[in-house]
Amino acid sequence: MNDATNHLLSGWLVLLPILIPFATSGFIFLFRKQLSGKGLQLQQQIGVFASGAHLVVSLLLLQQVIAHDMLNVQSSNWPVPFGISFVADGLSSLMVVIVSVMALAVNIYSLSDIDKLRQHFAFQPVYLLLIAALSGAFLTGDLFNLYVWFEILLISSFVLLSLGNTRAQLRGAVNYVLINLIASSLFLAATGLIYGYTGALNMADIAVQLSTLPQGIVTVIAVLFLVAFGMKAALFPLFFWLPPAYPAPPIAISAIFAGLLTKVGVYALIRVFTLFFVYDVSFTHTILLWLSGFTIIVGVLSAIVQDDIRKIVSFHLIAQVGYMVAGLAFYTDLGLRATIFYFIEDIVIMTNLFLITGLIARYGGSFKLSKLGNLYRDKPYLAIFFAISAFSLGGIPPLSGFWAKFMIIQASFAGGNILFTLVLLFGAFITLYSMARIWQHAFLKTSENKTLSLEEGNLTQSKRNFYIPVVALTALTLLISFWPQPFYTLSKQVSSQLLSPQNYIEHMFSEQNTASPFKVKESKGEGH
Predict the structure, then answer these.
(1) Domain ranges of the chain
(2) What strand order describes the sheet that includes 71-75?
(3) 236 in Cβ contact with 295 (< 8 Å)
(4) What's this model's pTM, rounded to 2 decimal places?
């Protein structure tokens, strides 16, 4: 194939992770009446097929990015910085792959977890719209476009949270929407300030223009972005919306939220605080470090006083955000490398823990530790799945969580942050204690309650749909645990890109051939 054809194919690879779920969502929604009733099964099958196709194109995109360093698509041949840009670099393409893996796993689980009423009220099209918005948020190279994708995320997540119309769901959904509307307003205000001072919305152009502004103005804008994205990431003290919201919907919805939604906020923090706001690191990144420390402490301490497993895991989700942001706050190669590795393993673990929590409740009849027991005796394989994910979260070697925490602690110690290193160790210890507490109450404690099977009572759904994603994500956790080197190497490549924002900027503005209908650019590096 000639260069123009290669450029065109690369361009479609950048766009397909957005277009596939978006187009499938529209198709299912338009033909929802025809796919209702007996056709609901067909609707589910279409959704799972779209999730599988999303995974395939995401893996191909990552392969191309590894080979070429970065891919860029300009809409309608508009030159940078005027057209809308979509950029696949190491971080964005990696995040899209993680999204696709989790989306497929949770969609399979939802086949048995989401009841027919919720499926009838457009679960599949809204779920796919969420996946399209996540992919768009990771791949956009335009700040206002990022705001648009965040709003699509907010709309789709609100619908998923409220499907079912229970009191707990509506209360959690209202809290979620209110805090995210505030965050979006701050994000829009900060974007408006940037546009007012620089006349730029393209991220590479913004990075260039901000360097010419007075430092005080840039710092004020940085704080606005920190608050806006901190809310979305559930950083201290802006996390209070998360514990009531995430446990409220069915487990499949909670799992995709826990695995991915807060990570979009962390991704946005990483993007702007490695590309835009790198001129006053001693101020901005020190704030990030303090916030991450408090997030870890408050998250783990709040978890140990909960009785509901979903809330325990939700508070640990908040604490894990603190660990990721800590690596960004160090602003070193080792710190960012640790953050990227933490991204990979924590999304897998958190998604799987919520899925396993759903099985615990189905077998035990409750989410409350005080009402559970006997599960190890009756369901030993479930105990094994839980132990792998839970004790990885706690940092038991040689599980994947140990490598992630070890890298963060190493980065903290290397930077001379002795007090913060103690905070990281304290968080890991309390997390391990909390997971052991769930293990003791749910699996080891003797209880008079009868342990149910998935064939009893209302639990007649297919066990296969529940266990395929749990087994797959557990296997992925073990793969990262016992073969961490490829993930470590990939994390190192991504961190190197993040610490060299000039390469991102030069790539965006470099002159390349045009491939209709998109302008597609590949960097000329040798690859990795």
Answers:
(1) 280-482
(2) 85-88, 71-75, 518-522
(3) yes
(4) 0.89
